[in-house]
């Protein structure tokens, strides 16, 4: 006996979940309310012959809705703002006896109460905040309508129908993909949750398709341009596909809080087969090294076409792709970089660096890591779920660091709430608060098992938080958005508030500091070029009338930018005799041969100097990172820089190392100028130059950029860019 198959939704609901924009279920073209009397021909009633949507990039719909840059031949509008369509009937429309309405449908199981089936009535006057269609002109058999959408409408791709009422039922247009309409978030609409008042900010955070991401080290800040490419062909569909893949219910897709939270989970592949696989171990077999990507376009299109996560990403790649997702859907967004970012597994506001009694770092006990930098995103939206004042910029992070509600995601967390220590408000505010506010605590682990706090650095973590400036490629310091200045009363109050709301502090480091040593120590790392020797200079200052002797130790480590050490490449111990009230400098030479064989992706070196004052047993400790200067790619252009005209782009690289580079991949892209492309060179010999030429035909005018990267078996993070000014067609 066969068992009757049960519905997948198990009797708990009348219809299945409606969680796919791509799936369809078309309404009937004829809905009769009974039998049609003999002799009545339904064709005699009003019916639609054509629908015109004014969807060209120069049409008023796309220009007024700021969607004219999308390389997409469908109508794209922003919610809460009116747009025009024209319907042609089989005969002139008579409002006294003819009744019709426009319908928008999304997903496979549309319901009016869920906002997935939207009947738009013809009304005498449009009302703000409500769906409606107003007849603005009639010309023969044509009727032009102004359609107003709700500012809370679901964001996605809708199917459009026109339904005509007859005494015997409804006649509806059949499915026509040409009338499909994308509806996006609207930062220009004051009633939309993502409304952003300043026009220059909207231009930057919604419409700019090229960004700058800052990386490197606090003492050596680097930047690289990133192609967000949110308007490129196929990217809008790829972003909607991400929400489908997350099985996000369509009814929640009008809420930017939910959309950004789902996006932060879906950009990484942990636990949900999302867009990017993270890798921090310097092994990138069967994938692309993170530093080789120049933008989001290739990543998102590959994810959609392959239906598999793309290999590989690190924090700035996750942030770049997430920024594309947010801006493409209409949520204002920017990439943020935090220098000296605390990755503290239990968010206890304390990064513990354990030292041996001789001053060396105890790597077995030291579990917390300080990232040289960490990139995340901010998205702009109201927060009706929080008290007044916590809307605006929200921190969202798609790098898979910690589990939040069962998934690797982070945010949206109100930046204003983080600044004031109100970490009780959702989502993940304690984690972000710890990233920018933790103390660095140096603890000596004694042989008898006791721990002694040697020093506390309250200013190291969250040293500088930056983003790209509006309208330029420079850096904007936004540290004060996240925290009050060290030592201010407000800063202490914010910390006390965070502690009150449950953020842990493992031990009270207030007032248990040892008395300040008579000797100060600092060191500087010379600007170092990849493949060259450089010096580390350590300075000791004796502030007392006593003479001291010092035993010092320098450790040089190849580190991941996450602060995790891969290998110690340099050990040096030395003794220093300090006369009263004097200072002394010690120089340590670091040879290229000592670090080159072990170098990681970002050429980051970390130095740790510890010193013991023998007479007082005081321990002095300092750590600093440096990023080696890497050779650049040179991009040249010849020919007219005009829309529709061919120009030749040359990408050039010279190998500065004493070794041959193997398996060299070069990538080139520039939104509006060229599609992403790549080329392989089997090898580049020492001091030799390779050139790669491509013919490009720009299709977007104005300020544009070309970006190129190079990666090989032994040298990565090589990069170059060129600013262009593309002229309009004459």
UniProtKB/TrEMBL annotation:
PANTHER family: COAGULATION FACTOR XIII A CHAIN, PROTEIN-GLUTAMINE GAMMA-GLUTAMYLTRANSFERASE. GO terms for cellular component: cytoplasm; extracellular region. Factor XIII is activated by thrombin and calcium ion to a transglutaminase that catalyzes the formation of gamma-glutamyl-epsilon-lysine cross-links between fibrin chains, thus stabilizing the fibrin clot. Also cross-link alpha-2-plasmin inhibitor, or fibronectin, to the alpha chains of fibrin. Keywords: Acetylation, Acyltransferase, Blood coagulation, Calcium, Cytoplasm, Glycoprotein, Hemostasis, Metal-binding, Secreted, Transferase, Zymogen. It comes from Pipistrellus kuhlii (Kuhl's pipistrelle). SUPFAM superfamilies: Cysteine proteinases, E set domains, Transglutaminase, two C-terminal domains. It comes from the Eukaryota. Binds 1 Ca(2+) ion per subunit. GO terms for molecular function: metal ion binding; protein-glutamine gamma-glutamyltransferase activity. The keyword Acetylation applies. GO terms for biological process: blood coagulation, fibrin clot formation. Tetramer of two A chains (F13A1) and two B (F13B) chains. Ca(2+) binds at residues 437, 439, 486, 491. Its EC number is 2.3.2.13. The active site is at 315, 374, 397. This is Coagulation factor XIII A chain. Its cofactor is Ca(2+). Coiled coil: none annotated. InterPro entries: Ig-like_fold (IPR013783), Ig_E-set (IPR014756), Papain-like_cys_pep_sf (IPR038765), Transglutaminase (IPR050779), Transglutaminase-like (IPR002931), Transglutaminase-like_sf (IPR036985), Transglutaminase_animal (IPR023608), Transglutaminase_AS (IPR013808). Residues 17-28 have a biased composition (Polar residues). Belongs to the transglutaminase superfamily. Transglutaminase family. It is found in: Cytoplasm; Secreted. It catalyses: L-glutaminyl-[protein] + L-lysyl-[protein] = [protein]-L-lysyl-N(6)-5-L-glutamyl-[protein] + NH4(+).
């Amino acid at each position: 006996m066969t068992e009757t198959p049960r519905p997948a939704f198990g009797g708990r609901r009348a219809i299945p979940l409606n969680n796919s924009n791509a799936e369809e279920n078309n309404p009937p073209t004829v809905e009769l309310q009974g039998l049609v009397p003999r002799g009545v021909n339904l064709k005699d009633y009003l019916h639609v012959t054509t629908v015109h949507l004014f969807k060209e990039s120069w049409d008023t719909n796309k220009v007024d809705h700021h969607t004219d840059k999308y390389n997409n031949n469908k109508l794209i509008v922003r919610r809460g703002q009116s747009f025009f369509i024209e319907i042609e009937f089989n005969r002139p429309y008579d409002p006294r006896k003819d009744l019709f309405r426009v319908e928008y449908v999304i997903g496979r199981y549309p319901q009016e109460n869920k906002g997935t089936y939207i009947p738009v009535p013809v009304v005498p006057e449009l009302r703000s905040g409500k769906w409606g269609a107003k007849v603005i002109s009639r010309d023969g058999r044509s009727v032009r309508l102004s359609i107003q959408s709700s500012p809370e409408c679901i964001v996605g791709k809708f199917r459009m129908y026109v339904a005509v009422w007859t005494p015997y039922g409804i006649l509806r247009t059949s499915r026509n993909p040409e009338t499909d309409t994308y509806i996006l978030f609207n930062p220009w609409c004051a009633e939309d949750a993502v409304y952003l008042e300043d026009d220059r900010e909207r231009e930057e955070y919604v419409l700019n398709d090229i960004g700058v991401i800052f990386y490197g080290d606090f003492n050596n800040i680097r930047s690289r341009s990133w192609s967000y490419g949110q308007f490129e062909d196929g990217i809008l569909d790829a972003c909607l596909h991400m929400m489908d893949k997350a099985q996000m219910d369509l009814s929640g897709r009008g809420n930017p809080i939910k959309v950004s939270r789902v996006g932060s989970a879906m950009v990484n592949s942990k636990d949900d087969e999302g867009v990017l696989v993270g890798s921090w171990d310097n092994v990138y077999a069967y994938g692309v090294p993170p530093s080789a990507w120049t933008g989001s376009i290739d990543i998102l299109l590959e994810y959609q076409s392959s239906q598999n996560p793309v290999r590989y990403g690190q924090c700035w790649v996750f942030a770049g792709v997430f920024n594309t997702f947010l801006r493409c859907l209409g949520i204002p967004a920017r990439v943020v970089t935090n220098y000296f970012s605390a990755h503290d597994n239990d968010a206890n506001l304390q990064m513990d660096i354990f030292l041996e009694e001789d001053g060396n770092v105890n790597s077995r006990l030291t579990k917390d890591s300080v990232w040289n930098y960490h990139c995340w995103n901010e998205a702009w939206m109201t927060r009706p779920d929080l008290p007044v004042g916590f809307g605006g910029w929200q921190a969202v992070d798609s790098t898979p660091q910690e589990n939040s509600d069962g998934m690797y995601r982070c945010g949206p967390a109100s930046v204003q709430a983080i600044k004031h220590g109100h970490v009780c408000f959702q989502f993940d505010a304690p984690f972000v608060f710890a990233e920018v506010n933790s103390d660095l605590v140096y603890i000596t682990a004694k042989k008898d098992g006791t721990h002694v706090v040697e020093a506390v650095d309250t200013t190291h973590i969250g040293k500088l938080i930056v983003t790209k400036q509006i309208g330029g490629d420079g850096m904007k310091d936004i540290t004060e958005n996240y925290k009050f200045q060290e030592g201010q009363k407000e800063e202490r109050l914010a910390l006390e508030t965070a502690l009150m709301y449950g953020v842990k502090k493992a031990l009270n480091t207030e007032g248990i500091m040892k008395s300040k040593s008579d000797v100060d120590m600092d060191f500087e790392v010379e600007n170092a070029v990849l493949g060259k020797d450089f010096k580390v200079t350590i300075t000791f200052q004796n502030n007392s009338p006593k003479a001291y002797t010092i035993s010092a130790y320098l450790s040089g480590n190849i580190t991941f930018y996450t602060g995790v050490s891969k290998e110690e490449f340099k050990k040096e111990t030395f003794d220093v005799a300090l006369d009263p009230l004097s200072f002394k400098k010690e120089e340590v030479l670091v040879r290229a041969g000592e670090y080159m064989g072990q170098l990681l992706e970002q050429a980051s070196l970390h130095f740790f100097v510890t010193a013991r004052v023998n007479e007082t047993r005081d321990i002095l400790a300092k750590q600093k990172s440096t990023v080696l200067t890497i050779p650049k790619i040179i991009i040249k252009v010849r020919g007219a820089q005009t829309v529709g005209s061919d120009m030749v782009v040359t990408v050039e690289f010279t190998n500065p190392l004493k070794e041959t580079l193997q398996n060299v991949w070069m990538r080139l892209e520039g939104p509006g100028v060229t599609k992403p492309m790549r080329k392989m060179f089997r090898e580049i010999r020492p001091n030799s130059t390779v050139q790669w030429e491509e013919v490009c035909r720009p299709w977007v005018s104005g300020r544009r950029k070309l970006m190129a990267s190079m990666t090989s078996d032994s040298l990565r993070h090589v990069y170059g860019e060129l600013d262009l000014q593309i002229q309009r067609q004459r």
